[in-house]
Amino acid sequence: MKRFFPSVACLVSCCVTILPCDKTDAASIQDIESLFRPIISADGSVVVGLSKPDSTFQVTRWTEAGGTAYLGDVTGAYHNCYLATSADGSVIVGRDVPSYGLGGIIWTESSGLVRLTEYFPDHPLVPYDITDDGNLIVGTEYDFSDDGSNQAYMAELGGSITYLSGLNGATSAYPELVSSDGSVIAGATYTEDESSVAYAGARWTADTGWVPLGDLPEDFYYALPKAMSSDGSVIVGYNYDSSNLQAFRWTADTGVVGLGFEISGGAINISADGSIIVGTSDHVPFIWTADGGMRSLEDELTNTYGLDLSDWYLYSANGISADGMHIVGTGYHIGHTPGEGSTTFLITIPEPGTLMLVMTGFVCVLRR
User: Fold this and answer.
1) Closest alpha carbon to 256 in 295, 178, 202
2) What's the rounded Cα separation, in Å, for the pair 46 and 206?
3) 40 has which bridge partners?
């Protein structure tokens, strides 16, 4: 990386971080592959999603060094397949919906893409998330018998299954997210009695069991967690109501706080420390920070980081790396329309600039 030498001086007022004026350190964008629901590993080195190189959808993995690798077919409906990856992208898990019911899939370099029952025979585990080290998965074990019940679990690869206790009055729970070390899980609880059915966004630890996220903003049905900081202290998601998918952010201090805009297609994600949110609102990718609020990702990249997007239309922002310096999403080149020439982009923001930068009023003076 080119260093910032003191021959360039920036005079800044009301500024959190000094932005280098050296435009050789501008952000970059790569056109990597046309993927459905792309995600990025925490370290920013691996992009994973679904693609259709021939007649079937395949789990697909991309790296800078190796390019695109097709890992195996998805046997069920592609739109019901959700993937998650370890921090370095070496383990991928997901849910698949073959004709005989929900099922789990897992990929490692040594095993290839296999059913999760290869690791846990006789247990129809459906994984939703995986820890950073790739050793612990969380999800739901489904019982398809007439009188069966679904159970939330955590499972060690090559080890045992632990069913999550502490429903605290709920009928069942559905884990969606796990912290980097596996100590915090977020998802939803389901409560049914003779007269009503209720869902609630909830957070689980071994000490507390499942605890609802708390009081909801007005017009919220229930807050569905969709992404979580690495330590589980910040949760983001959206109101689960077809007429109002308003984004929210939760911490123990603030509770559920509506962010004032709706989410398109369920796309929302968060950096490791919880300070940066990216996602899609009304088919426009956005970035959110506490100081800057929500703004267009295209505008931020163009105006703050000097990224030339004249050939691009960014359609969605799906994932962000732990440090906030890599963003993956979907777009297309100018002259095409969505569905024709759509592609997956990977944006890289070099040091020392990061998306945590918020500046109000600055003058940059170049000294030669």
Assistant:
1) 202
2) 31
3) 47
Q: For residues 89 and 95, what is the distance between their CA atoms, to the nearest angstrom?
A: 17
pLDDT per position as a tens digit, 7-57: 333 333 333 333 433 444 579 999 987 898 999 999 999 999 999 888 888
How far is the C-alpha of 127 from the C-alpha of 93, rounded, in Å? 6
Residues in the chain: 368
Tokens of 342: 């759509």
Mean pLDDT score across all residues of the chain: 84
Check if the beta carbon of residue 68 is closer than 8 Å to that of residue 343: no
How far lies 165's CA from each of 204, 213, 262, 265, in Å?
9, 17, 33, 32
Radius of gyration of the chain measured on its C-alpha atoms: 21
Rounded mean pLDDT, 269-284: 95
**Euclidean distance between CA atoms 82 and 319, whole angstroms:** 13
3-state SS track over 345-360: EEEECCCCCCCCCCEC
CA dist., res. 178 & res. 210, Å (int) = 13
Is 325 exposed, middle or buried, given 0-12, 13-18 or 19+ CB atoms closer than 10 A?
A: buried
Model pLDDT for residues 209-255, shown as the tens digit of each residue: 999 999 998 888 889 999 999 999 999 999 887 777 899 999 999 99
89/254 Cα distance (integer angstroms) = 33
Are the C-beta atoms of residues 267 and 317 closer than 8 Å to each other?
yes
82-85 vs 67-73, strand pairing mode: unpaired
Percent above pLDDT 90 for the chain: 62
